[in-house]
Design brief:
26% of the residues lie in helices and 33% in strands. The two termini are 30 Å apart. The protein is α+β, with helices and mostly antiparallel strands. The protein contains five helices and nine strands, in the order αββββαββαααβββ. It is globular and about 60 Å long. The protein binds flavin mononucleotide. The site of flavin mononucleotide has 16 residues, from strand 2, strand 4 and helix 2.
């Protein structure tokens, strides 16, 4: 069996040149997003969400990107979860997407706010019933006594809402990551990768710089 240290891959599919990159980072993200969608990537919207407590202790986990536009990037979660508590005391986050077949990585840093109730309601009600019950049943990130406890709790809620609309719990909803910087990484041969970093200026315009790989 080979050593972990010997696992490596050379990237050669594509390149990212300033001349081809859009001056607006969101438009550039939209271009890469559409290419990712067309590449039949499994869980194409899965992204790492990094947060930190006020005293700088980091935590990261995967969440699903559920929308983006000029305002920012949206995901949904439990506001009382560990990430929710970190975002409460330190409303900044970093998102990382990795699209392996395209040899691409995108890193977004930004300021986080909760989405409005209407947007959270709309998304919650668009989810399958099982997912809505799950959100209602699960005290995300809390210690629970067993898996049976959770399954039983979900079963009771399913029965309770058998003939009624499952309400969005007040502790569940969306977050908006308002980007301050977005880095696009394209793998290149011999580790000479392309990295373009966009930073949002005070005038609301995006600046772009090349970073060494
Ligand atoms: C593919 C994948 C998608 C996930 N999507 C979400 C999501 O959209 N929202 C969410 O709250 N948790 C999602 N999770 C679970 C989180 O990774 C995490 O376990 C949970 O949110 C609790 O994190 P926390 O304790 O840091 O708050 C997902 C996990 C995986 C593997």
């Amino acid at each position: 069996m080979g050593s972990i240290a010997d696992i490596r891959k050379d990237y050669k599919l594509k390149e990212l040149q300033e001349a081809d990159a859009h001056e607006n980072a969101i438009v550039q993200f939209d271009r890469w997003w559409k290419e990712a969608l067309n590449s039949e990537i499994d869980e194409v919207n899965a992204m790492t969400l990094a947060t930190a407590s006020a005293d700088g202790v980091p935590a990261a986990r995967i969440v699903l990107l559920k929308g983006f536009d000029a305002r920012g990037f949206r995901f949904f979660s439990n506001y009382n979860s560990f990430k929710g508590m970190q975002l409460e005391e330190n409303p900044r986050a970093c998102l990382v997407l990795f699209w392996k077949v395209l040899e691409r990585q995108v890193r977004i840093t930004g300021l986080v706010e909760k989405l409005g109730e209407k947007e959270s309601d709309e998304y919650f009600q668009s989810r399958p019933a099982g997912s809505r019950i799950g959100a209602l049943a699960s005290p995300q990130s809390e210690v629970i006594e067993s898996s049976e406890w959770l399954i039983d709790r979900a079963a009771k809620l399913k029965e309770k809402y058998a003939h009624a609309e499952i309400p969005r719990p007040p502790y569940w909803g969306g977050y908006l990551v308002k980007p301050v910087s977005i880095e696009f990484w394209q793998g290149r041969p011999n580790r000479l990768h392309d990295r373009l970093l966009y930073t949002l200026g005070e005038d609301g315009k995006w600046g772009m710089e090349r970073l060494a790989p």
